Amino acid sequence: MDQALLLLLDAANYVLVIVLVAMGLVIVFGLMRVINMAHGELFLLGAYTLVMLQQAGVSYWVGLVAAPLLVGGVGLLMEELVIRHIYHRFLDTILATWGLSIIIKQGVILLFGPGAQSTTAPFTAQLDLLGSSYPAYRLFIMGVALFVVAGTFYLFFRTRFGLAARAVIANRDTAACLGLSTRAFDRATFAYGAALAGLAGAVMAPIMSVDPQMGLGFLIPAFLSILVGGAGHLGGPVLGAGLIGATDSVTASLWSPVLAQVVVFTMAVIAIRIFPTGILGGGRK
Amino acid sequence: MLQVRGLESGYGGSRVLRGIDLEVAEGESVALLGRNGMGKTTLLKTLMGLLPAARGEIRFAGQRLDGRRPEQVARAGMAFVPQGREIFAELSVEENLLLGAMGRGGLGAAVPEAIYGRFPILKERRQQRGGTLSGGQQQQLAIGRALAGKPRLLLLDEPSEGLQPSIVLEVAAALKREAAEQGLTLITVEQNVDLALRVATRCLFIENGGIVAEASSEALRRDPAVLHKHLAI
Questions:
Q1: Can you tell me the ipTM of this complex?
Q2: Both ends of chain B: CA-CA distance in Å?
Q3: Tens of pLDDT along A231-281?
Q4: Which pLDDT does position A284 carry in this prediction?
Q5: What is the 3-state secondary structure (H, E, C) of B216-233?
Q6: I need a surface site. Which of A20, A219, B167, B203 has the fewest CB within 10 A?
Q7: Which chain B residues are Cβ-neighbours of A169 within 8 angstroms?
Q8: Nearest Cα to Cα of residue B185 among B79, B27, B32, B68
């Protein structure tokens, strides 16, 4: 019984972090039709921001706030210097963001070396949950992720900013003709999507080994979640990450991580076969 | 209020507009007539900044607007009701109107109450999704949304398209009243000559990307020969 609870918590943990990563991807794709291949490296930058700050003796909490801000700033730069010039050329954006991902990854290797770095969690207490002990920090990760996911939904569905952003997503030309600055929304949402990835990287860093390849481990399940859940709605990545993340972590802990990969990909293929634009649909034609 | 000189534009390499000269005074209502493919929609889209002007200039309320983006044109006081209406189908009527107000008024803007006065059906259906409205109601919503930004010049592309004749009359009446009461300037592209003559005081005929003739609506009503010549009806 307690084994099942731990498994459930670990799965929820993984799912929530994938949602954070996938949401950033979906927002950027929805608004600009750009598939950001460098999104995993933004996650990486979030983790290394924490590494850097902790090595400099700064507290974890400062790092947790600084990571999304800094990575959001990097997103803003990426958008301004590269993406905005090519955002209507779909294939080129994939190549360009892939190039950016290589630059970021190699930059990190130059600065920190190829090896793994470690960061420390702000607290290491174990909580007693129905008789089994569970790291409090993992619960904290879930709390942060839940809060940010809920906040993102609030931002997009309950505020004027979100209303305008959804209008730009639904029909760019019409929104522009009303006087809404599509450029400003491109910038803001790209930075926001990047900041989500940066936050996910920073919050996950203490429980994993921080190395230059870590971004990929989150980018792939995030992409799969979007393909399965659908890119047309913010709920798509939530549903997709729930299915992908839960299947992955349950299979991995009951059998093996290798089998988990097989099961997840098989499931994704079947889901995409049945729902070509994702379970919640791809939105715009 | 609007001066256009030697305006050329088109799609990709092909030039649709070949030197348009146009002058519209404040408060005037002008109709652009012409057969399909002559450049009427292209002209409106170029004025609005949706298509780049390849050559020529657009002056509006003392500002140069050629080369500006649509949002800048909109903020200068021009509004566009596109062909097919392009309302946000997933958003409510009220949200559609709100977006029109927010485009020029900022995120805190409110829907002017006058819009609901002008189109009472929109008030009745304010919580309904835009996509569930009938064609005529969608047209009213598209016009209301454009008016919510309090524009000085309204560009309408085929407002009568796909509407029943009775609703066309209603739309024409609402536009006329708006123009008369608010001093709004109108440029209407129309296939429906009846609506054009009702709304506009002056009609311009576009052929092969240039303005080839113009006449007052009154003269056209008395002597439709010009209409027959340019529209082949």
A1: 0.92
A2: 32
A3: 878 888 888 888 888 888 888 888 888 888 888 888 888 888 888 888 887
A4: 45
A5: EHHHHHHCCHHHHHHHCC
A6: B167
A7: none
A8: B27
Do the Cβ atoms of B74 and A177 come within 8 Å?
A: yes
Backbone angles phi and psi of A164, in degrees to 5:
-65, -40
- Assigned token pair, A157: 């569905």
Q: Is B82 on the interface with A (CB under 8 A)?
A: yes
B107 with A167: Cβ contact below 8 A: no
Based on the fold, state whether residues B124 and B85 are members of the same structural domain. yes
**DSSP 8-state symbol, B77:** T
Residue B135 covered by a domain: yes
pLDDT of residue B180: 87
Judge whether B44 lies within some domain.
yes
How many CB atoms are located within 10 Å of the residue A172 CB? Answer: 18
8 A C-beta contact, residue A63 and residue A77: no
* Inter-chain residue contact B100 with A178, CB threshold 8 Å: yes
Residues B65 and B86 in one domain: no
Supply the pTM of this predicted model.
0.87
List the structure tokens of A73.
């700033």
Exposure of A84 by Cβ count < 10 A (0-12 exposed, 13-18 middle, 19+ buried)?
middle
CATH code of the region A2-115+132-274: 1.10.3470
- Window 29-58 of B: residues touching A by CB (8 A cutoff) are 48-50
**What is the DSSP code (8-state) at residue A251?**
H
Using a CB–CB cutoff of 8 Å, tell me whether B88 touches chain A. yes
In angstroms, the CA A247 to CA A255 distance is: 11
| Among chain A residues, CA nearest to B74 | A179
For residue range B4-53, what is the model confidence (pLDDT) as tens digits? 999 999 888 788 999 999 999 999 999 999 888 888 999 999 999 999 99
Q: Do B107 and A160 touch (CB under 8 A)?
A: yes
B149 touches chain A (CB under 8 A): yes
Please give the interface size between A and B, counted as residue pairs whose CB atoms are below 8 Å apart: 75
Closest Cβ–Cβ partner in A170, A175, A179 for B75: A179
Is B27 a member of any domain?
yes
Q: What are phi and psi of B120, to 5 degrees?
A: -60, -30
Q: Which residues of B touch A164 (CB under 8 A)?
A: 99, 102, 107
CATH assignment at residue B199? 3.40.50.300
Q: Which residue has the tokens 């949200």?
A: B95
Sequence spans of domains, chain A: 2-115+132-274
pLDDT of B148-176, one tens digit each? 999 999 999 999 888 888 888 888 888 88
Of A160, A161, A178, the CB nearest to B74: A178
Using CA coordinates, name the residue in chain B closest to A177: B70
Find the closest chain A residue to B90 by CA distance: A170
Test mutation, B102, B107, B138, B143, chain A, max A CBs within 10 A: B102
In a domain, B179, yes or no: no
Tokens found for residue B107: 């995120």
